[in-house]
Amino acid sequence: MKSEPDLNADAAVAEAEQQAADASTRSRVARSILQHGPSSANDLASRLGLTPAAVRRHLTVLATTGQVVSREQRVYGHRGRGRPAKVFTLTDAGRGEFYQAYDQLAITALDYLEEVAGPQAVVDFSARIAEAVAARFAIIEPEYDSAAEALVEALTAEGFVASLQPVASGVQLCQYHCPVAHVAAEYPQLCEAETRVFARLLDSHVQRLATIAHGDGVCTTHVPRPVVATMYPSPKGRAN
């Protein structure tokens, strides 16, 4: 029979192991929100192979530590009876768990650049930063069936965790994480340069709908469906 100190040691080890397992699961929950955007407890349970009750327990901890916040799920069109489902989204602190940038240092550097070289220098610098995605895109684009799919992969590789969501008028390019969100909040030239790169790579008149830098949960860019020319018969008596 084990002595009381041994039993206490075993209990401490078991508790430590449980805490480590819980922390790992909470990290999986947070990463799933990061990758898929605002999610309900049922969505998370389905994706992670957990029970909704277990997910809610971990979401409660994440909310208590300020890493997630909840809101009512937006419903488009007719809404059925009952209260709307709650969805959970990452806060800045939650995103910071995945990527720590020297935001203030970068903002100070851009302040100095603008002061000594003028606003155009910030625009030029932003364009250079956006070209990192373009460079990766150029390498991987031949491996993909569409430019949009290649851009998603390039963005994800650069830390933006992107996906495509089909809509009636085309697709929406969604970025669930922005490594420079705090800097872009001060210098929107970074977002503007990125949008111009998207338009060039996709050969499309894209439109930015939302950005994390301005407080939205997801950076969203609309990519319209290409316009297909319609062939009309030539008027009678005229050559085609």
Q: How are the elements arranged and paired?
A:
Layout: H1 4-36, H2 41-48, H3 52-64, E1 68-72, E2 86-90, H4 92-96, H5 103-117, H6 119-140, H7 147-157, E3 162-167, E4 170-175, H8 181-186, H9 189-202, E5 207-210, E6 219-224
Antiparallel strand pairs: 1-2, 3-4, 4-6, 5-6
Helix pairs in contact: 1-3, 2-3, 5-6, 6-7, 6-9
Can you characterise this structure?
With 240 residues, the chain is an alpha+beta fold. The chain has helices at residues 4-36, 41-48, 52-64, 92-96, 103-117, 119-140, 147-157, 181-186, 189-202; strands at residues 68-72, 86-90, 162-167, 170-175, 207-210, 219-224. It folds into 2 domains: 9-96, Arc Repressor Mutant, subunit A, CATH 1.10.10; 103-224, 2-Layer Sandwich (Muramoyl-pentapeptide Carboxypeptidase, domain 2), CATH 3.30.1380. It has a 4-stranded antiparallel β-sheet, covered by helices on one side. Helix 6 runs parallel beside helix 9. It is globular and about 75 Å long. The model has no long low-confidence stretch (mean pLDDT 84).
Mean pLDDT: 84
Count of beta strands? 6
| Class from helix and strand fractions | alpha+beta
Number of helices: 9
Provide a concise account of the structure shown:
The chain is an alpha+beta fold. 53% of the residues lie in helices and 13% in strands.
